[in-house]
Automatic annotation (TrEMBL):
<keyword id="KW-0378">Hydrolase</keyword>
<dbReference type="Pfam" id="PF00857">
    <property type="entry name" value="Isochorismatase"/>
</dbReference>
<dbReference type="InterPro" id="IPR053152">
    <property type="entry name" value="Hydrolase_YcaC-like"/>
</dbReference>
<dbReference type="InterPro" id="IPR000868">
    <property type="entry name" value="Isochorismatase-like_dom"/>
</dbReference>
<dbReference type="InterPro" id="IPR036380">
    <property type="entry name" value="Isochorismatase-like_sf"/>
</dbReference>
<dbReference type="GO" id="GO:0016787">
    <property type="term" value="F:hydrolase activity"/>
</dbReference>
<protein>
    <submittedName>
        <fullName>Hydrolase, isochorismatase family</fullName>
    </submittedName>
</protein>
<feature type="domain" description="Isochorismatase-like">
    <location>
        <begin position="17"/>
        <end position="167"/>
    </location>
</feature>
Length: 207
């Protein structure tokens, strides 16, 4: 059996970041993690993509309604335009979003969304069905409570989505502390994980 799909790693050259519906109105209802922690993780994932030079696609669902606008920090970090969807709950059903992902020419999608069981789950399933290799970043996503999170993870895994965390994504992309993006990615890790900041201080002091 060929397990290449499950063992091939992320790199700065084969992945695209999809940030789905990280909107202020939706952030209010999160209960599976402390909002401050989730915000930190979302920004850490965004900074990881920026430091590695990974292209990104940002989308929002009905931003003029109760969902509210995308967290402004995300666009400040990643730049680019936000794809505002009027009706599609599943972002993959938006031609603008889907085409933006396809235009990168990359088959690995690092995906995060609010809420996990809708905004992340549905496009992840749809992208996998079209042959994409999806990495669902659970700690940069969020939902109503832990039960909903756990059920959603089960469904993602059943569909062949790779469930992961932002720090694991960063380490997988970095691959080697001698790599060209190692210092910038290391600074992201230090900036968003207080304890590891001390490790980075020691590392750079002895370079």
């Amino acid at each position: 059996m060929n397990n290449h799909k499950f063992t091939e790693t992320l790199t700065a050259d084969n992945a695209v970041l999809a940030m789905i519906d990280h909107q202020t109105g939706l952030m209010v209802g999160l209960g599976d993690e402390h909002p401050t922690v989730i915000k930190n993780n979302i920004l850490a994932l965004s900074n990881t993509a920026k430091a590695a030079g990974i292209p990104s696609v940002i989308t929002a669902s009905m931003p003029d309604g109760p969902n509210g606008p995308v967290m402004p920090e995300i666009q400040q970090i990643l730049g680019g335009e936000i794809i505002n969807r009027a009706d599609e709950i599943n972002a993959w059903k938006s031609p603008e979003f889907r085409n933006a992902v396809k235009a990168t020419g990359r088959k690995k999608i690092i995906m995060a969304g609010i809420v996990t069981d809708v905004c992340l789950l549905f496009p992840a399933l749809s992208a996998v069905a079209e042959g994409y290799d999806v990495y669902a970043v659970i700690d940069a996503s969020g939902t109503w409570n832990k039960t909903v999170q756990e059920v959603t993870i089960q469904r993602l895994v059943q569909a062949g989505v790779k469930v992961t965390t932002w720090a694991s994504v960063l380490a997988e992309i970095m691959d080697d502390w001698r790599g060209e993006n190692a210092e910038s990615l290391g600074n992201v890790l230090a900036g968003h994980t207080t304890k590891y900041g001390y490790v980075m201080t020691s590392y750079f002091a002895n370079k």
